[in-house]
Amino acid sequence: MNSILFGIACLDEGLPPLDNTLVQVRTMILDLPVDKRRSVSRKIKKICKRAIKEKTENIPMFRRRKIEDDLKQRLAFNRDNTLLINDVLIIRILYVRRYLMEREAKKNTNTRPR
Which of 13, 36, 94, 101 could form a disulfide with 32 if both were Cys (CB 3.0 to 4.6 A apart)? Predict the structure, then answer.
């Protein structure tokens, strides 16, 4: 995927460009003012939840709950004030990056002329 288009997709979601290295993205987020950092962290968490919901919507209900709980645990949704922990932040950035890339790829294949 074109990094410029991906950067625009991130900005459309209210996130900093996620096409840099993980260390650069993490540093960019942690260097934001407190209120902006809080806003970005909430958006990251919201996008993670949206991604989980979309990934599990076609799974039968009896299995869906377990898969959702496993993903939420992996993304540390059950712990308080965890986004500033480097490992959790990096895991969430990776998850959001992959979700946005997949979504943009689907958009591009659906809008490609035949």
Answer: 36
